[in-house]
Amino acid sequence: MVERSIRPIVTVPDVVGLPFHVGRDVAAEARVALANPDPDGPAIGSLAWPGLFYIVWQHPEPGTQLREWDSVAVRVVKHGDAPDLEPAEPLDAPPADSAHAQPDREQYLDLAEDDSPQ
């Protein structure tokens, strides 16, 4: 079956990293609609209200061609809850300073020799 539509083809914009209210406007200017990735869940607008929410994921990727007003699934997080603000996993303790402070004798350069002409 061949899909035929009179709706024009549009390009998906990049909305990741934008506040939801800004991303929604960018999507509308590109003539696509932001949507909840869960089709059985609430509308994305109700998930991103009240408060300041940021878009952290989108599908399809920016640059993808869709029909006008097709959905772009996005995930949002409340300001301050973004994963990049979470502390990194603690690293192992660095080696003791003495391990770095011992000179390697093969790299020792003797500057005491006098090579000047006499």
What does this structure look like?
16% of the residues lie in helices and 20% in strands. It contains three helices and five strands, in the order βαβαβββα. The model has no long low-confidence stretch (mean pLDDT 83).
Fraction in beta strands: 15-25%
SSE string, helices as H and strands as E: EHEHEEEH
Name the strands of the widest sheet in spatial order: 2-5-3
Distance between the termini: 96 Å
- What's the story with the biggest beta sheet? 3 strands, mixed
Helical proportion, percent range: 10-25%
Poorly predicted regions are: none
Which fold name is given in CATH as the topology of the domain at 9-78?
Answer: Trypsin Inhibitor V, Chain A
Identify the CATH architecture of the domain at 9-78: 2-Layer Sandwich
